[in-house]
Amino acid sequence: MKGIEKFSLQGKVAFVTGGARGIGKAVATGFAEAGAHIVIADLDLAEGEKTAAQIAAANGVQAVAVKCDVTDPHSVNALIDTIEEKFGKLDIAFCNAGICINAPASEMTYEQWTKVININLTGVFLTAQAAGNYMIKKGIKGSIINTASMSGHIVNVPQPQCAYNASKAGVIMLTKSLAVEWATTGVRVNSISPGYIGTELVKANPTLIPLINTWNEMAPLHRLGEPEELQTVTLFLASDASSFTTGSDVVVDGAFTCF
């Protein structure tokens, strides 16, 4: 392949967890624009189906939605079974589902801590594990991309979010560990670490406006990133253009963590 052809995902199959909206939706759209068939894996099946229909209509690819709880091994295995039944292969996994709970460490409940860790870290492990095992069994030289965060590199201020920070730091090291374990199988594992991204839910939340103003004042670019600004970096990691890239964490934060 030459030049731009290396970025093609023509005929490949990708699942995106948390794909119904936000970053997941933007990345799923980017994959589809490059030719991939898409599986939207989300707890919100109705919204997932809406997103899948939009992606299919706009890009001439197949797109389906599957209800999936990333913290439940049985649900994750059912996702893989559905992909096998529908497409017969899986080339790309974008393990993206995540949440954040802002609570001071001294007041954070056990339930709050475990909810964040279970979704953000255990959920990434279960979906990456299932995808990796499937790819290895099928002899597919696949790509797994995990959503970490700049919060895995720094401590965010002014909001307290120790569970989120710890979970995302864990995703980065999990990514490196899986990349090393699976290096000889042809399965590549990388992560992205977005900065503050202005998803529809973030922009529509009135309680976040003071925080957004503070973040923008602190940021070198003085703005939030847009979900679509993560499309090209994930396309690179998903495609053959990154064939020698594994175990990497790509920070996409508008230089927020540079100081």
TrEMBL record:
The keyword Oxidoreductase applies. It comes from Candidatus Anaerobiospirillum merdipullorum. NCBIfam families: PRK07231.1. The keyword Kinase does not apply. Coiled coil: none annotated. Signal peptide: none annotated. GO terms for molecular function: oxidoreductase activity, acting on the CH-OH group of donors, NAD or NADP as acceptor. This is SDR family oxidoreductase. It holds the Pfam family adh_short_C2. PANTHER family: 3-OXOACYL-[ACYL-CARRIER-PROTEIN] REDUCTASE FABG, SHORT-CHAIN DEHYDROGENASES/REDUCTASES FAMILY MEMBER. SUPFAM superfamilies: NAD(P)-binding Rossmann-fold domains (SSF51735). It comes from the Bacteria. The lineage of its organism: Bacteria, Pseudomonadati, Pseudomonadota, Gammaproteobacteria, Aeromonadales. Keywords: NADP, Oxidoreductase. GO terms for biological process: carbohydrate metabolic process; small molecule metabolic process. Belongs to the short-chain dehydrogenases/reductases (SDR) family.
